[in-house]
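Collaborator request log, item 7. Partner lab (contact: R.S.) asked for a structural prediction of N-acetylneuraminate synthase to inform their binding assays.
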Amino acid sequence: MTSVTTEIKPVAIGESLLGAGQQVYVIGEIGINHNGDIEIAKQLIDVSAEAGANAVKFQKRTPEISTPTDMRDKIRSTPWGDMTYLDYRYRVEFDQAQYKELISYAASKGLHAFASPWDVPSVEFMEEQGAVTHKVASASVTDIDLLKALAQTGKPIILSTGMSTIEQIDKAVETLGTSNLVMMHATSTYPLPPEEANLRMIETLRDRYQVPVGYSGHERGLQISLAAVALGAVTVERHITLDRTMWGSDQASSLEPKGFESLIRDIRILEQAMGDGVKKVFPGELAPLSRLRRVDA
Ligand SMILES: C=C(OP(=O)(O)O)C(=O)O
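Returned to partner:
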């Protein structure tokens, strides 16, 4: 009996390799859960380092470009008072000096720090920071100018695929190329109900594009992310927060420190448990074998 397996080449992000049989690259998605406060961002870096993550991620926007025009003047109640949605978007951005501080703080804890740039100037901004990789948020899958700017960086790119059709994803992959690409299955419902998780998409994306595929999760709890790892996800990203009751749109579907720590503990156990699919008799089986098997073949 023979079978044909095509090897999908791992992708290097800094010193980490993302691919089958490699350590799962766990990303603590800080996003905008810092609410514009650098001390909260640092605490979330601490949480990620203590939990054993590989990276933290932010969202970088140029608000006057990336905020949809019909949203800009809408009034939003915030902890800093009522303000337009555009002003709120500015309120939660960090500048170059703050990013520099955060990236070097993360590095001092052994973590990569990068962002999903939501517009072309934000790609340049993160390039100036020397980010090891860039991520494409699901909302940006159809932003071809952004994808072209990202492709031009020559950096490994992580492409998320929520809220997108397969045709839109085809076009994004065509623009980015597959030689330095990691994809992420995602469904962008916050919080994600299990029936919309569609985890078998991990295999579909891997077969269709022949690149390493991970999972970006928005569910409550840990099970679905753990199942993603069992289905071969090479990276797992989860939103993290200090406290789910904090103000902000992503807080409620984020993991708190204890949950993130449990997730990574269980991912590391699953990595060992997956094995290589080659049948062998393990040393631990020898005593039960001699005790229990009656007929030797
Ligand atoms: C929203 C983001 O990611 P995803 O689409 O994977 O949820 C992001 O990276 O900014």
